[in-house]
Predict the 3D structure of the following.
Amino acid sequence: MVAELAPMQALELWRRVLIANLRLTGGDLSARQLALLLTVYMAPAPRTVRGLADFLDISTPAVTRALYRLNKLGVLRRKLDKGNRRRIVVHRTVKGAVFLRDFADLVAATARALDQGETPAG
């Protein structure tokens, strides 16, 4: 079910999701890192640093910095392209898939709670 949300309801949903994620995981991901992670998992392959920068309309160095952190957390892996050693290809990991599955469950549960008029804990 896709619900119609008014702008303030959409913001409230996002606020609740961010607070719940912060409480559960410590909230170590920036908006840029989360957008990059979601793009890698939800957009078609192959995923290169340059391609991700173009898609997200941010600089290649910004993608590189975000990927460094995501790689360090183990939710993505950067690897040199064997056919072109100047090109970095971004790969998914099991840890990243589990994180996003849990995050998706959190978003869905938060949306249900908002739809049912539950008062947020935060």
Q: What stands out?
A: The chain is about 60% helix and 10% strand. The first helix runs from residue 7 to 25. Helices lie at 7-25, 31-42, 49-56, 60-73, 94-115.
